[in-house]
Amino acid sequence: MAQFGFENDLQGILKLDMPITNAPMARWQRKASTSTASAALSPGKSSNLSSTPSKTPSKTPGKNKKCTPSKVGGDRFIPIRNGKQMDVASFLLSKETEPLDANNLTVENQKAWSVKLNGYDIDEAKILHLGGKPLNAPEGYQNNLKVLYSQVTPASVKKTRYISSVPDRVLDAPELRNDFYLNLLDWSSRNLLAVALRSNVYLWDADRGDITLLMQTERDEDYISSVSWTKEGNFLAIGTSDCKVQLWDVETQKRLRSMSGHTARVGSLSWNEHVLTSGSRSGHIHHHDVRVVDHHIFTLEAHSQEVCGLKWSPDGRYLASGGNDNMVCVWPGVMEGSVGNGGQSLHCWSEHQGAVKALAWCPWQPNILASGGGTSDRHIRIWNVNSGSCISSLDTQSQISSLVFAANYKELVSGHGYAHNNVVIWKFPSLTKVAELAGHEDRVLNLALSPDGSTVATVAGDETVRLWKGFELDPIKKKTERIKSASSVIHQSIR
């Protein structure tokens, strides 16, 4: 009951400027009633009244017109507060300076008082609304300047990027050799996917869907250990278990040459213009100039075990090699007629604790190299070749078999074996996880990126090749890239 009484007092305070029915009589009303009463008691100014003169004259001397109105509805209204309302107001003012009592004043009471006095809770009021949905305009409000100043900004068709958790296509890869140290998949600039299935090499046309058997080994006991396309996509290098490196013309489907020199299987290959570099199980790295008869240029020696990873940088200045000895080495580029730095490595890093097969150069930062370790290591490490330092490191909790940079969104894609057998997309350079693609039932062996950078192909021990289409450019961004590329071609032609 005390609460209701307090609310009635508050309501009374809010209505101070309204006419008050229980207030004392106004001064002019008292004077009017006094004059009327006196006139009724002593008509004609009888001498029965007290002879003491009145202190307040009924009329102003020197004037015939009354200055005080004699009836309700005069020229102004002076409100009068009763004593009860003033007491409540004084109480509230005095309580503001006193410390809050947790026992008597609760959060609910404060909120109720704020809503009663202000019409809303002050704590929840917003002076500037900077986020979220815009506030709705009052009902019936119309902005006359809306047509004049409003404009439609071009928006992308795809507001948010969608990465499907299921592959866009699944291809069968029977008799695929489930060997972690081999490189059995590569995608050419002409949109041909080369896959090595034991002793055969198949080409899959991503545009038309046609499948072609390019070659097969002469002996049944031999198998394909690595494949690699040239930059133009018209020649394919194939490494075999019988220590040979073959060069094939895919248009005529003919073998151009077979290059020997290794003493063990060739598990890794990489192109740099006319120079083909091959890595062997013996730990040796050979440079081949495919233009000349005497193809062997130089041998690089740094690894004590099988070289399972080889990658030339996009600008051709550096060669990265990874081996089963847990080493990552960086070599200088091959200059015309000689080998830079006398065949000595620029850097050799031993931070990995497992075999290093996964290597990838950053397309937009040619001096940045990413490497991934095997089951005993499971780390992705980012290296700066210029300074020779490790920029960052990430424990993926899974064996890393392959790495590739997706330039469309500046991301790093990793393929994993034991124990997750999945594909993970990382934002670069923060290495925060963007998406995880699961579907393979065995370890992922190799990754390859499509020429337009929109699709990643994965081959795994479950004898399947899966295509993940999660890197398509936004239509607006794609149009901008085309304009930039066209302008660069124009500038080159002018020069």
Automatic annotation (TrEMBL):
GO terms for cellular component: anaphase-promoting complex. WD repeats lie at residues 217-258, 300-331, 374-393, 437-469. Keywords: Repeat, WD repeat. The keyword Repeat applies. Residues 28-76 are annotated as: Disordered. Belongs to the WD repeat CDC20/Fizzy family. This is CDC20/Fizzy WD40 domain-containing protein.
